[in-house]
């Protein structure tokens, strides 16, 4: 038996001056980082490299479209993963302090 639960749609993001430009930068930088990461692998990646590059470009174009023309539906990737990284750094700092004491 399948149980389907419909979630409420996410509310629109708040609008503020400069959001569209920052969203465009955020939308382009993350796929570009994936392309740079796959291009600088130490081992040959074969067909995976061009595939990841093509997917990053296609997803980046979709993200750029959403960032520029449907800006109220764009959510910042940098903010999302920045919070995760900050939490990991905080946990690491706490572990370091407790291990040295």
Overview features:
mainly alpha, 66% helix, 101 residues, single chain
Q: How many individual helices?
A: 3
Overall shape: extended
Number of strands: 0
- If you average the pLDDT, what whole number results? 93
Main beta-sheet annotation: none
Helix content: 55-70%
Uncertain runs with pLDDT below 50, 5 residues or more? none
Write the layout of secondary structure elements.
Blueprint (H helix, E strand, L loop, with lengths): L18 H21 L8 H22 L7 H24 L1
Helix pairs in contact: 1-2
Can I get a quick summary?
The chain has helices at residues 19-39, 48-69, 77-100.
What does this molecule look like?
It is a single chain. The protein has 101 residues and is mostly helical. Helix content is 66%, strand content 0%. The chain has 3 helices and no strands. It has helices at residues 19-39, 48-69, 77-100. α1 packs antiparallel against α2. The longest helix is centred in the last third of the chain and has 24 residues, at 77-100. It is extended. It starts with 18 loop residues before the first helix and ends with a helix.
């Amino acid at each position: 038996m399948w149980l389907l639960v419909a979630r409420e749609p996410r509310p629109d993001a708040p609008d503020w001056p400069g959001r569209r430009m920052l969203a465009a930068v955020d939308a382009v930088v993350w796929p570009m980082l994936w392309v740079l990461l796959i291009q600088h692998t130490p081992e040959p990646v074969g067909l995976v490299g061009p595939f990841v590059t093509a997917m990053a470009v296609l997803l980046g174009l979709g993200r750029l479209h959403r960032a520029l023309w449907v800006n109220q539906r764009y959510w910042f990737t940098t903010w999302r993963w920045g919070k995760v990284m900050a939490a990991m750094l905080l946990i690491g700092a706490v572990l370091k302090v407790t291990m040295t004491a």
